[in-house]
């Protein structure tokens, strides 16, 4: 997706696996995904591993990828939540390739998320 060669680190392997999952299983059009997207939160610059956009180019999902041996801790989830404070997405995902946690924004549009047991399809996300 970045149209350049990158080192195949353990985290990059997880990122590439999840991009394939989004495209092939969840039905996300590849042109509506961005890898290593820059974000600014105050004076800090961040990079989201994967951003998924809706058909109007608004952020829909943020995915934070970690290497497989790294546990999905509270700090990892808080990192993705910080990204949401800038993006306002409908779905937050954290994954290390062996475990994946998916949280959806509540249907009332509040700033709370609830964990779900599966990755929703792209069409399901658009309908939320």
Q: Give the biggest sheet.
A: 6 strands, mixed
Compute the number of strand runs.
6
How would you describe the shape? globular
- Would you tell me the overall average pLDDT? 89
- Beta percentage is 25-35%
What is the alpha-carbon Rg in Å?
A: 14 Å
Going across the biggest sheet, name each strand in turn. 1-2-3-4-5-6
The level of helicity is 25-40%
What ranges have pLDDT less than 50 throughout 5 or more consecutive residues? none
By DSSP (H or I, 4+ residues per run), the number of helices equals 3
Walkthrough of the structure:
The model has no long low-confidence stretch (mean pLDDT 89). The chain contains three helices and six strands; from the N terminus they run αβββαβββα. The chain has helices at 10-24, 74-87, 122-127; strands spanning 33-41, 44-53, 59-65, 91-95, 100-105, 113-116. The longest helix has 15 residues, at 10-24. A hairpin with a 2-residue loop joins strand 1 and strand 2 (44-53). The chain is α+β, with helices and mostly antiparallel strands.
What's the quick description here?
The chain is α+β, with helices and mostly antiparallel strands and 128 residues long.
